Amino acid sequence: MSRESWKIFQIMAEFVAGFEQLSQIQPSVSIFGSARIQPGHPYYAL
Q: Which of 8, 11, 34, 35 has the most CB atoms around it within 10 Å of its CB?
C-alpha cells in the first residue's frame, strides 16, 4: 500500500479521538474543520 492509501486510517483515528472527547461532554455539538481557528488556539486541539 502506498503512503496515501494509509492516510484514511489516520483520518479515521482522528475522527474516533474527537468522538471520544465529545462523549465526555453532554450535550455537545461537533463542528468539523478548523479553517478559521489557527494552530495554538485552545479550540484547535479539540
A: 34
